[in-house]
Amino acid sequence: MTSEVTEYAHGERLAWSAKSLAGSGHHGWVLRAQSGGTFVRTEETQGGLGMRLIGPGLRPLMVRLHQRWLEGLSKVASAGAPPPP
Fold it and tell me: What's the pTM value of the predicted model, to 2 decimals?
């Protein structure tokens, strides 16, 4: 499998892509400052034979995992900045 960061715009967007024999995927995060915090939207696309075969079962899992990731991110961000090194 190969993967790489494909987009980076500080405070706006981060994305990566990966390829394997079974398929490919692209995952991005869109960030937008708003009053009281930051709006985060996660986007994902997948393609290839392997993804078409497991896609119907994978989608509900990915939705739950993305929601868990966003809730965890919110919890960490609400705790404030990390201490200096």
Answer: 0.69
